[in-house]
Amino acid sequence: MNRVKSPQDMGAGLLFIFIGSVGIWFGKDLTYGSARAMGPGYFPIWLSSIIIVMGLICLVRAAVLQGDPIDRIPLRPILCVFAGVLAFGYLIETIRLELALILLTAISTQARSDTNQKQMLILAVAMALASVFVLVVVLGQAMPTYTSDYMSGFLSKIWSLFGLARGK
Amino acid sequence: MDFNMFQNLLTGFVAAGTVQNVGFAMIGCMVGTLIGVLPGIGPIPTLAMLLPITFGLDPLSSLIMMAGIYYGAQYGGSTTSILVNMPGESSSVVTCIDGYQMARRGRAGSALAVAALGSFFAGCVGTIFIAGFGPPLASFAQKFNSPDYFSLMVLGLVTAVILAQGSVLKAITVIIIGLFFGLVGTDVNSGATRYTFGISSLWDGIDFLPMVIGMFGLVEIIRNLESDSLDREPISTNMRDLWPTKAEFKEAIPSALRGTALGSLLGILPGGGAVLASFAAYTVEKKVVRNPSFAFGKGAIQGVAGPEAANNAAAQTSFIPLLTLGLPSNPIMAIMMGAMMIQGIQPGSAVMTSNPDLFWGLVASMWIGNAMLVIINLPLVGMWVKLLQVPYRLLYPAIIMFCCIGVYSSNSEPSQLLVMVVFAAFGYILIRFGCEPAPMILGFILGPLMEENLRRSMVLSRGDPMIFLQRPISATLLGLTACVVLLIVLPSFRKTREEAFKE
């Protein structure tokens, strides 16, 4: 292990080789064609090969040149932010925008250990309501919300007062 | 020629001067500044995150708004540099050096005013530059054929490497990975689907919006969350100090003029742009100014005026290669190009002839945007300072929410958010491995174009790669590329480049 002088270069090298290999592996079924008549596989295979070569050079450098260590990767913020975003995306159609936004904030604010839970909850509810108001009532965006269900008749009446047809 | 230029500009002002478009320019500058002053968020994440709000507009309005967001974000970056010593982006790193020192001795208002007025002047010159250089360059570009375009893109991508932080080798590879990602989806020529892994939402390629928001917006948030102290106390500014003194003006004006000239020229170069311009301007100021009343690094006003004028001039003129050649010279222009393509416009020499209202309207809107910045920013400095005091723990959930809504509303597909997360993870890993993710966007945008031009060139030459050296334009461009490569490899240049990034 102590052969690696530059962990960052090694990581990058391995990543590049991985991407290049994926490119070649999944590109091998595409028609390669020839320089004169390039098939859909021609350019991607070339690019993938160059990426692999670059990756190999990175690996050589990692063994030869002194470089920076890879900084510690704190998992908590990454996992919380990603989990919040994915929960939002995959639940919005079931639990609607209002609850999805509250859930998003509730999950993503766990990214820091010093989060004040009560404050977070107030923030989540307030921001969710504010954005639903802006999106649905002001901008008339078509999004799955409870608000638009309950208020659609009411809203269209208000808009028609101004001679406007908004939303869906 | 001159007469034409003014007539063209007039066309532009008519198109851009409608109440609606001026309104969008103003909203763009406002929200751009709003997001741009937030700590640690530079123009790239700002543009990425605000891209969805321009979708519903017609092409000209949306481009005007994007341009406004860009200037706003850039100016917002200068504000944070001066007030909290926190550059939102690399082009205002140099502004920190003397700007923050000026703020510390109580001249924050003056520094902000010089930055704003210098930027405005530079913006005006930059606009005239585009109006003057755009048409000849575009008509020259009409002579370009596929091999020339291919070589031009090679030159653009290689020069972009100079500006990427960290190792050249990694930067080049990241760009090539971008080219590769750009090819995902249905091949226009054969109809074959490439690298879609059976996922139907990848048939049209990787979606631009969730990709850039993930790679720049989310990554930025995660990186900010990692640091322990998120909040910084901004220096209090007093509105009364806003106007620079006569002596300060006398020192700042020549610097702003030099910065403007340098920035306008450096902005046109492929690979150039605001970052290069501001670093170069600072170096020039340090060499040229003999005895400043305050030494450089101790709050010299020249160190604010020069780079600020230069980065704004370059921000304008870097539109020239995009609008005339279809070549984005830096990642910001790549996002602009993405926005244009989403609107159904293929940037290039054809825009000026087929869509003069759009071209000249955009040029005119640059001037409008710059004027707007001065009008909005100077009186509102107090408000931006207040915004800096909003604790980050309240800010970041709002930004994440904004990203999610933006991505979801552009195309109501849950998979879009997955794309966003995947690219956030990818961008994060790149940074941890010492690669800067921004150049990838350039490759991503140019990938399909490069493939198409390579294919056509090869058909023209019946598979002979010598065609790139036989055509004079292409050969010249490749020659330039070779010079740039030599420059990068040359040890002495390498040293100055590394030093520039350290500062």
Describe the structure.
With 168 residues, chain A is mainly alpha-helical. Chain A folds into 2 domains: 7-64; 75-161, no CATH class. Helices cover 69% and strands 0% of the residues of chain A. Chain A is built from 5 helices and no strands. In chain A, α1 (7-27) runs antiparallel to α2 (42-64) and α3 (75-108) crosses α4 (117-138). The longest helix of chain A has 34 residues, at 75-108. Chain B has 503 residues and is mainly alpha-helical. Chain B has one domain. Helix content of chain B is 74%, strand content 1%. Chain B contains 22 helices and 2 strands.
How many E-type strands of chain B?
A: 2
Order of helices and strands of chain A: HHHHH
The number of domains of chain B: 1
| Residues in helix, % of chain B | over 70%
Mean pLDDT of chain B: 82
Structural class of chain A: mainly alpha
Terminal-residue CA separation of chain B: 43 Å
Helix count of chain B equals 22
Largest sheet of chain B: 2 strands, antiparallel
Number of strands of chain A: 0
Task: Give a short summary of the structure.
The complex is a heterodimer of chains A (168) and B (503). Chain A is mostly helical.
Descriptors:
heterodimer; A: 168 residues; mainly alpha; 69% helix; B: 503 residues; two-stranded antiparallel ribbon; globular
What's the structural blueprint in terms of helices and strands?
The complex is a heterodimer of chains A (168) and B (503).
Chain A: H1 7-27, H2 42-64, H3 75-108, H4 117-138, H5 146-161
Helix pairs in contact in A: 1-2, 3-4
Chain B: H1 2-16, H2 19-36, H3 43-50, H4 59-84, H5 93-104, H6 108-141, H7 146-163, H8 168-182, E1 185-186, E2 193-194, H9 208-226, H10 246-268, H11 274-288, H12 302-317, H13 319-325, H14 331-342, H15 349-354, H16 356-388, H17 392-410, H18 414-432, H19 438-460, H20 467-470, H21 472-489, H22 491-502
Antiparallel strand pairs in B: 1-2
